[in-house]
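SAMPLE LOG
Freezer: B-3
Tube label: C17
Construct: single chain, 94 aa
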Amino acid sequence: MAHKLTISIGITNEEGQEIVKTTSEKEVPSFEEFEELGFRKGLHEIETAILEARKEAGETAAAEYMTQTSKKKRNNYRLNIRNLAFGKQSTPTV
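STRUCTURE (predicted):
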């Protein structure tokens, strides 16, 4: 029976609120399977699982972060346009 490898990535804002959280899970050989495979092949399977999980979690976290950033920029842009339409001063936001 294989074991489960879990890699999690979280991004928090200045207030400590988590804005992005993602987890990737991969199977790795159990201790018995590792012994049956032999050291090199077993280690290779573990390293491959780690690299794949890290890549998957990193790509998902980056995509979610970019989505959150784009929503925030879009909302700030709409707010600035609305303020200009009603004659209010607005400060540029990034």
